[in-house]
Design a protein that fits this description.
about 475 residues, alpha+beta, 16 helices
Length: about 475
């Protein structure tokens, strides 16, 4: 029991990942990558040399070991920013397989098994990934694949929609609202409240359009509008697909994906007053029923809350060679999605905490009664047993931590722009003194990805392999 309690008091995931996040958000992507390698080595138990030499892709590095799968997601973003989309794909696939495995097993998980699975708190359960993280994995996979060769991008785009429907249509939460005979008492299904995101359908549309499948692209764009609402980008895409004219003659299409701002953060926060009252009443009720007042002596309930670091992300203004300006539009607001889903699932999180504390209070109350009996049920025995029970109950609940594990290197938003340019090499201005040369070819789409975790930093720009202009290597001058 002592080991369990001490284990619960270890540093939270949020505090352990803070240095990586700080390096990544400051634009020190190489430093962030080196630091995450060290964390992966410690978490997986494999030598640091193996992690570094194989980019954490060696078969000996088990994503199921602790939070290794979550750390692989962090590394994937760091290596993407370092210009290695191929490695990003492999890392994301390795982590995705593990996340998918845990998600499938947990969708219909029995509510009570989640309570009794731990004597500590939710952070000791295997991390199955926030629902929006399952979506964003596939989104980043699609974008990274477009940077490589685009062969699997459409499959990943389809998976965004499939996973979204899988999540929203799941029965998670339903079993929490069944009575003892299995009768539905209200169909509490928090995932039904989620908004659908449009970026998957948009990615489907641009890939179908590039492959001259305008009819199918229309359906994807129409679905994106249905999910997202009015949008210049999506409306123009639908009209373009209906007309069957992808771009003016002699021009090539350019897609810009802007991964902008710092993504959401989870912090520990006291539960709302109503939850505290319910927890206290439950403790008092147990105390009365068990004649053990130490059962009511518990620390405040802590829950994970989403904190937004970049509440406003301006669109990226892209300067074209002819002096025109094109601005990006948001197709995935990661912050808003995280807040929506966290709020929808909060009743389940709180319910787990309240029932877990009831189990702890019952255990402490039972221990107090046994201790009183062994000590002879004297007045002094009652006082000493109460004191010991109170200390144990307070400590046992005080060491609980809210589960703040999350994919910390996600952007605040993913914004998108599309335009066409005459055939040839063009220099694009991408804000904050960031530029990129792109080759435009009729009938071939160019892809540009701008990664800017800190809105006041230059960030990093990537261009897909087929549209990249290799910058000349300038030899250093010798005096």
């Amino acid at each position: 029991m002592t080991a369990v309690l001490l284990g619960a008091g270890c540093r939270s995931y949020g505090s352990r990942i803070r240095q990586f996040r700080s390096l990544y958000e400051s634009g020190n992507f190489a430093g962030a990558n080196a630091h995450i390698d060290l964390m992966i080595a410690r978490e997986s138990g494999e030598p640091l040399e193996v992690v570094r030499e194989t980019q954490a892709l060696d078969d000996s590095i088990d994503p199921a070991e602790g939070n290794t799968d979550l750390l692989l997601l962090e590394k994937a973003m760091a290596v993407l920013a370092l210009g290695q989309p191929e490695t990003t794909l492999r890392l994301l696939e390795k982590a995705k397989d593990r996340f998918d495995d845990k998600f499938v097993r947990s969708v219909g998980a029995k509510f009570w098994s989640e309570f009794t699975a731990t004597l500590t708190d939710d952070s000791s359960l295997p991390y199955r990934g926030a629902d929006y993280e399952h979506i964003v994995i596939r989104c980043v996979l699609a974008i990274a694949d477009l940077l490589v060769d685009g062969r699997e991008a459409y499959t990943y785009a389809l998976q965004i929609g499939e996973k979204q429907e899988d999540i929203i249509g799941s029965d998670y939460g339903f079993e929490q609202d069944l009575d003892s005979e299995g009768t539905d008492r209200g169909r509490y299904k928090p995932r039904e409240r989620y908004s659908r995101v449009a970026i998957g359908k948009y990615l489907e549309g641009i890939i179908l359009e590039a492959n001259i499948q305008a009819d199918e692209a229309q359906r994807s764009y129409a679905a994106a509008i249905d999910f997202h609402g009015p949008s210049t980008l999506l409306t123009e895409a639908l009209e373009r697909a209906r007309s069957g004219i992808k771009a003016p003659p002699g021009e090539g299409v350019v897609h810009v994906f802007y991964l902008a701002g710092r993504g959401p953060e989870l912090i520990e926060d006291p539960a709302d007053p109503g939850t505290e009252i319910a927890s206290r009443i439950a403790g008092v009720g147990l105390g009365i029923g068990m004649r053990s007042w130490s059962a009511a002596m518990q620390a405040p309930v802590l829950v994970p809350r989403v904190v937004v670091l970049d509440s406003f992300v301006p669109p990226l203004e892209i300067g074209l060679p002819n002096g025109e300006r094109v601005v990006t539009e948001t197709l995935l607001d990661v912050n808003a999605t995280a807040i929506e889903q966290n709020n929808a699932n909060m009743p389940v999180t709180i319910a787990r905490a309240v029932v877990r504390r009831s189990l702890k209070a019952a255990a402490v109350g039972t221990g107090e009664r046994i201790l009183r009996k062994q000590m002879g049920n004297t007045y002094e025995a009652h006082n000493l047993a109460f004191l010991i029970g109170m200390i144990v109950n307070l400590f046992w609940t005080a060491v609980e931590t809210a589960d703040t594990r999350m994919w910390t290197s996600l952007p605040s938003q993913i914004q998108v722009a599309r335009f066409s340019l005459p055939e040839g090499v063009h220099r694009l201005q991408l804000g904050r003194d960031l530029e990129a040369s792109v080759v435009a070819r009729p009938g071939q789409d160019a892809v540009v990805v701008v990664i800017r975790p800190h809105l006041n930093a230059r960030g990093r720009v990537l261009v897909n392999r087929a549209s990249r202009v290799e910058e000349p290597v300038v030899a250093p001058q010798v005096n």
